[in-house]
Write a structure and sequence with these properties.
mainly beta; globular; 2 helices; seven-stranded antiparallel β-sheet; about 10% helix
Length: about 240
């Protein structure tokens, strides 16, 4: 009797999670983009019907999505830290803040002028590549606590939107999932031709960030340094913990 009850509860939980994962996407658009473009805020964030009670997970850290006024958080821990915090307006989505010491939310890196690193247009064209942004000012501040920092830079930067592509990442994600790739290249020469680092954000409508890859240029070719896949829709939400401001 007890065994049958436990089995029934487990089956119900699996059924509920499956119904959530197969629910049609609800657009996160808060603006009307021109025909042929994509509202990248929609593609970069977990669906509004999911983010309060669910998050993405995979082989490494979890990823919780929270929205704020003109910003959104990708929190990488159940306690709301560490995080990536991005800014957005009607023109662009900007890389803004990322963690420094994984276990100390008082330390972080922030782009110095807040909006000097536009990652993608808010309404972006896809293609091979599509939208392209050249970034001459990559200055950022490395904070050792909430008020002390040093300023550095990443030379020249160039950001592009590629796709759409259709990929299969396993887990609970559909096969042949449609993704857009935001390519973030930095430490580039003055002509934006040769860059020493590249990060790729694989973005899927409804799920947000489903894969992140970092490459470094070695012997004239990009070689993968790190990859994180977010292919599981897991129960639980969080509240971001950013104590400095």
């Amino acid at each position: 009797m007890r065994k049958n009850l436990v089995l029934a509860v487990l089956c119900l939980a699996v059924a509920l999670l499956f119904s959530v994962s197969t629910k049609p996407a609800q657009a996160q658009s808060t603006m009307s983009c021109p025909s042929g473009t994509y509202d990248m805020l929609d593609w970069m964030t977990l669906d509004s019907s999911l983010r309060g009670n669910y998050h993405m997970s995979g082989g490494a850290n979890p990823l919780y999505t929270n929205m704020g006024s003109g910003k959104f958080y990708w929190s990488k821990g159940a306690n709301g830290t560490p995080w990536d915090i991005q800014l957005f307006d009607n023109k662009y989505i900007y890389l803004w803040i990322t963690e420094l010491n994984w276990n100390d939310p008082h330390t972080f890196k922030k782009f110095a002028k807040n909006t000097n690193m536009p990652l993608v247009p808010r309404c972006a064209k896809a293609g091979f590549p599509g939208s392209v942004i050249k970034v001459p000012d990559t200055s950022y501040q490395t904070y050792s606590d909430c008020s002390h920092y040093i300023t550095q830079n990443l030379k020249q930067g160039i950001n592009q939107v590629w796709g759409p592509y259709y990929i299969s990442l396993g887990g609970q994600l559909p096969s042949n999932l449609k993704v857009l790739v935001a390519s973030y290249r930095y430490n580039c020469d003055i002509n934006y031709a040769t860059c020493n680092d590249k990060e790729e954000y694989y973005l899927a409508q409804k799920y947000g960030l489903v894969q992140w890859v970092h490459y470094s240029l070695k012997n004239g070719a990009f070689q993968m340094q790190q990859k994180t896949v977010f292919n599981q829709l897991a129960s639980g939400g969080t509240k971001p913990n950013f104590p400095c401001f």
